[in-house]
Amino acid sequence: MNLTLKVWRQKNRTTQGGIVDYQVRDISPDMSFLEMLDVLNEDLLRKGDEPVAFDHDCREGICGSCNLFINGRAHGPEAGTTTCQLHMRKFSDGDTITIEPWRAAAFPVNKDLSVDRSAFDRIIQAGGYISVNTGGTPDANEIPVPKEIADRAFEAATCIGCGACVASCKNASAMLFVSAKVSQLALLPQGHVERKTRVENMVAQMDKEGFGACTNIGSCAAECPVGISLENIAILNHEFLAAKATSNNLA
């Protein structure tokens, strides 16, 4: 396939970026989208031009690093798919493909298509964990957990933190990400001890990072590559209201 790429180029956080047009030729339909970008960068290097910066790691749909906005959709046109799992057979010969970084104030552009998603890390550091005393490894079945609860916690835990929910939301809200992390721990008995401080601290950090408010449009769940449910936002709201009703933190 021969394609026209309209790629966002930006030198760094402080400079103004813009769309630059490129042509790529002889692209195999069996290539992944990132492999196609590798071909583009090889062409640019041969010409002595600066390659396009983009984030990637596992290329197996696990790490969530391949955050690209493709033709107006997070991770591209195929539902339930990360960019690294998107194959070029989803496009046609002669297509024009627009490639941009995530658009959110809390995700500043590092360079070109690479964005800083460390805001997610700081939200996790604020409370997305369980504090336990170190010691011998406990038996896996020491604390019985009903299968239904275990399955719901596992489904929430599948969030890969890619940020597609933020990029897809008109308000750049991180509620789906935060709710998945809160739900995962709130559903399990091990997470009950810290459930109040956890949700208060994580929501406070989310607001501090500058993410927008949730208005329940549902675009976050629609574009989530691993299918995180909106039910988690309901769990987050329940946990937050319950925590605030009995909290000593009046902020």
From TrEMBL:
Domain 4Fe-4S ferredoxin-type residues, every copy: 150-180
InterPro entries: 2Fe-2S_ferredoxin-like_sf, 2Fe2S_fd_BS, 4Fe4S_Fe-S-bd, Beta-grasp_dom_sf, Helical_ferredxn, SDH/FRD_Iron-Sulfur, Succ_DH/fum_Rdtase_N
Cofactor(s), by name: [3Fe-4S] cluster; [2Fe-2S] cluster
Signal peptide coordinates: none
Top-level taxon: Bacteria
Similarity comment: family membership: Belongs to the succinate dehydrogenase/fumarate reductase iron-sulfur protein family.
Protein name per UniProt: Succinate dehydrogenase/fumarate reductase iron-sulfur subunit
Organism expressing this protein natively: Hymenobacter endophyticus
